[in-house]
Amino acid sequence: MTIATSGLHHVTAIAGDPQRNADFYLRTLGLRLVKSTVNFDDPGTYHLYYGDGSGKPGTLLTFFPWKGAPKGRRGTGQATTTSFSVPESSIGWWKQHLGDLGVTTSEVRNRDGEDALTFLDPDGLALSLVAHPQGDPREPWDNGIVPAEHGIRGLHSVELSVASEDATAEMLSGLGLTATAQDGNRFRFAAGEGGPGTYVDVRVDPAVAQGLVAAGTVHHVAWRAPDETTQANWRGELLEAGVNVTSILDRQYFRSIYFREPGGTLLEIATDEPGFTADEPLLELGRALKLPPWLEPDRESIEAMLPKLDLPSGNNPEQSPA
């Protein structure tokens, strides 16, 4: 293929209770809720977007939270770990911070020259904080909960679990990623020049059972396209290559196409445009429930189905801190 992604756009996972989910990602990890909307295919549930102050592509972890959702199972055919980027000097702070809040973490481990700390969110989603030795120039969300000097900079990488690597590696190469390292049964690919926000690690283990996508697992991984024209051209190339890819879908804040890599993980190509300020000001991101035009006639019934969310006042900087 002639088009190459510049890196990760977002990761979307499934959660249980939406308030518990919001409490963890806003109050424990210190991210910002940049959009509160609904699953366009199932408007009876939220779609919550967490990221940096403006929700830049490459900083976003999003959730479909269903209260009472069955527990998923990590395994092959899934993205099994989602990693965030933090400053190299902050790993010790995060270990202490998470421990103080009752979150069990691993010991700090070094791999590929990067220190990493792993843990689970309240639904069992596998997360990692990774410190890249060359640093990460992206600005954190300064919310008054996590000190800015330790704040999460954005996504670092995702790990895909597969039974066999060859076909998956071929598709990742077709998306413009380059194989950069191997550590046993783990292969690293990077978009562009590499660095935090560009990596995908492919872990090969044919003995691991197939994963089950439900609460505590990743639904899909999205890669960046700069605009709709590039995305449309990319879709054409995927179709020519025999990939079963969806039509272009309007997600309000980006346009999306979806397809599966040969190992089973659902992938998306999402546009950088138009972004999260398309329907509300920067300072008010995430405060109100936003619906696409085709769901606005049903707003009253949709709002009646959704539980109210208690957000920290720091999510909107013009409010007085609680």
Automatic annotation (TrEMBL):
Signal peptide: none annotated. The keyword Oxidoreductase applies. CDD domains: PcpA_C_like (cd08347), PcpA_N_like (cd08346). Residues 7-132, 154-272 form the VOC domain. One of its GO terms (molecular function) is dioxygenase activity. Gene3D superfamilies: 2,3-Dihydroxybiphenyl 1,2-Dioxygenase, domain 1 (3.10.180.10). The keyword Acyltransferase does not apply. InterPro entries: Extradiol_RC_dioxygenase, Glyas_Bleomycin-R_OHBP_Dase, Glyas_Fos-R_dOase_dom, VOC_core. It comes from the Bacteria. Keywords: Dioxygenase, Oxidoreductase. It holds the Pfam family Glyoxalase. This is Ring-cleaving dioxygenase. The lineage of its organism: Bacteria, Bacillati, Actinomycetota, Actinomycetes, Pseudonocardiales.
